Amino acid sequence: MKKRICILLAFAFLIVASSVTAQMQRFPKPEFESGYEQPDPVTPEPRALALEYFDVAVLLAALSLASWLALKKRSRQGMLWLSVFTLLYFGFYRNGCICSVGSIQNMTLTFADAGYTISLTALLFFLLPLIFTLFFGRTFCAGACPLGAIQDLVIIKPISLPSWLRTTLGLVPYLYLALAVLYAATGTDFIICRYDPFVGIFRMDAPFLMTVLGIAFLLMGMFVARPYCRFFCPYGVLLNWMSHFSKWHLSITPSHCIQCKLCTTSCPFDAIDYPTGEKTTALSRDSAKRFLVYALLIPVWMAAGGFVGSRAHTWLSKAHPDVYLAELLITRPEVKNDPDNIDVQTFLSSGKTMPQLVESAQAIRQKFYTGSWLAGGFIGLVIGVTLLNQVVFRRRSDYRPNRGNCYSCARCVDYCPVDR
Question: In whole angstroms, how large is the CA radius of gyration of the chain?
Answer without folding.
Answer: 24
